[in-house]
Amino acid sequence: MELLAVISLLLLGFHSLRVRDQRQRIALLGRHLGQYQIEKLMEALTDGYLRAMGETQDERRAQLWSSLAIMEADLGREVTRFAEDFSRVWSDQTQVSTLVYPIPYGTKLFPRRAFDLRHALTIHARGISQLVLNRQELSQRDKAYTLTAEILLMQHSCHWFCRSKAVASARMLLRHKTHYAQLLASVSPATHEAYGALLAGRAERAGL
Fold first, then answer.
1. Is the Cβ–Cβ distance between 197 and 205 less than 8 Å?
2. In whole angstroms, what is the distance from residue 164 CA to residue 110 CA?
3. Are 172 and 155 contacting, i.e. CB atoms less than 8 angstroms apart?
4. What is the largest CA-CA distance in the chain?
5. What is the distance between the alpha carbons of residues 91 and 83, in angstroms, rounded to a whole number?
6. Which DSSP category does 113 fall into?
7. 94-110 residue pLDDT tens
8. What's the predicted TM-score (pTM) here?
9. Contact 44/184 with Cβ under 8 angstroms?
10. Which H or E run includes 206?
11. Residue 82: which residues within 8 A CB-CB, separation 6 or more?
């Protein structure tokens, strides 16, 4: 019985530490993200893309794409400002654990098994901004598809920071019917390479 009581206390302590760590992360990200219209723009864009692609009248479809282009530009500016703002947060607060089974404050215990959310946001902002400029002259549909993947991958990174990779991936699958691997395969090649290098601990190869 004594052993069972000790195990119960340890599990309770582990849970309490995990909840406190998550609350601190959510509060930190929320303070910075709350200053921008990023989430509202992301939702409006993803919904707008579906409407534009399903529109059968040429004139109405052109109007929708024109409105979406304005929102894309707004999102690019907002995400860039957000990434620049978050880059000023102390690095000790911005680490994201890559452990298979994340533990409370694991980034402090295993600093080599973590990546910096500030760097991830820089990659996301760069990828989104470059797509908005569309220097590769992608079609509207291809641009919308890739930009949606860039947006969702940034969302995944934020959820990963607040909770865990498993929770972030489960949310992505539940809300958007999209697997994490699908996101990685659907973003621009530049984002795919930079993000992969960051997760592998090679920030210099990620252009950071």
1. yes
2. 15
3. yes
4. 75
5. 14
6. G
7. 999 998 877 877 788 88
8. 0.91
9. no
10. none
11. 32, 33, 35, 36, 38, 121, 125
